[in-house]
Amino acid sequence: MDAGVCSSDSINGEDVFSGKPSDVSSADHLVVMIHGILGNSANWKFAAEQFVRKLPDKVFVHRSEKNMDKLTLDGVDVMGERLAEEVLELIKQKPNLRKISFVAHSVGGLVARYAIGKLYNPCKTENEKDLSAVSGDEFKGTIGGLEPVNFITVATPHLGSRGNKQVPFLFGLTALEKVAAGVIHWIFKRTGRHLFLTDNDDGKPPLLKRMVEDHEHYYFMSGLRSFKRRVAYSNVGYDHIVGWRTSSIRRAVELPKWEDSVNEKYPHVVYEELCKACDAEQDEPMSAEADSLDNIEAEELVTGLSRVSWEKVDVSFHSGSIQRFAAHSVIQVKNENLHSEGADVIQHIIDHFHV
Question: Strand 229-235's sheet: what is its strand order?
Fold first, then answer.
């Protein structure tokens, strides 16, 4: 481990990072990092180390490892259940923790959304009565008994991967997208069905549609709403896995015009905006672009997720970037040697992080 960053005890070995040993007792903010499909905990190594360097006495950073490699094909719900159990086990071992945040890449963002739906507790217990006083805000419940603060996704397909150029490498061709929807489960198994909204468990709506509201005993939207802030980082181009619309939770007409950044500190951050929550009673009529089943489903997901506020940060690795064709990995700095151009995005996440 580099100087200034050390690991402390964790569930599975060296996976919770903190600063100097003297900082361990004072860090009360758990940051859970979740990787994407066919990924592993090493994908967040660079970002975890940067978090600890910048916030040494504030955070524990745990890189989830309950859903690594082929286990990411088991489905968003199965992975979400595993993640929830992993978080609860960690919280049990670290009684000094008071706050919790999530930072998730790609499909990991959907897994995190599922997990918080299970971890959300709308009721105060005797041990949680003082959390609202700490936050200074209206009490909105807890996540695993902790105060929810930041929910951050990076290149996450919030609207799924079905239709309307949601997966750029299919070139927006309807024929290819239909074929992909029909065969994706051969490659990505149950997770593929969830991403393309082709799952039909016991006649229920697709999982991603269920996750835009509280469903049965899962508080998907209440859990999401409980965080002080929700942030969606998105690639505006060259991400051949997850399209700009689905990762930024926007309709096509809402995609902003952007220009190359002139900010030396964050050269790849090209657009930022705060989107306020839209109440159900104020929902606008269905967009005119919702002219097919795929678009109608995407519209339903945008509408549902827009009922909470989002900070949206758009990232571009276009001009002069030699790593732009790997944008989906670069935005996360999945490998420090191969994807270092995304370091400013990680810095942006940390600089705007609420502790």
Answer: 6-8, 16-18, 59-63, 29-34, 99-105, 147-154, 229-235, 310-315, 269-275
Q: Calculate the CA 204 to chain-centre distance.
A: 24
In whole angstroms, what is the distance from residue 187 CA to residue 10 CA? 33
Measured from the Cβ of residue 267, the count of other Cβ atoms closer than 10 Å reads 18
Q: DSSP string covering 242-296, please? A: S-HHHHHT--GGGPPP------SSSTTEEEEEEE----GGGPPPPPTT--SHHHH
**Both tokens assigned to 169:** 């490498």
Q: pLDDT at residue 139 above 80?
A: no
| Alpha-carbon span 282 to 18, nearest angstrom | 44
pLDDT above 80 for 213: yes
Regarding predicted confidence, which is higher, 119 or 15? 119
Query: What angle, rounded to 10 degrees, do the helices at 174-195 and 76-93 form?
Result: 40
Which pair of tokens denotes residue 283? Answer: 């929902």
3-state secondary structure of 102: strand
Token pair of 62 as six digits: 């745990």
Beta bridge partners of residue 229, listed in sequence order:
150
**Helix ranges (DSSP H) in the chain:** 21-24, 45-54, 76-93, 107-119, 131-135, 174-195, 207-210, 220-225, 244-248, 293-305, 327-330, 343-351
CB-CB contact of 353 with 55 (8 Å): yes
> Rounded CA gap, 36 and 41, in Å?
10
- Reported as type and span, the H/E element at residue 148 is strand 147-154
As a whole number of angstroms, the distance between CA 286 and CA 297 comes to 11
pLDDT in tens, 291-322: 555 577 889 999 999 999 999 999 999 877 78
At residue 234, the 3 state secondary structure works out as strand
How much is the pTM? 0.86
List CB contacts of 294: < 8 A, sequence separation 6 or more. 162, 163, 164, 177
DSSP sequence for 46-67: HHHHHHHHHSTTTEEEEE--SS
Report the 10 Å Cβ neighbour count for 64: 28
Structure tokens at 56: 């040494």
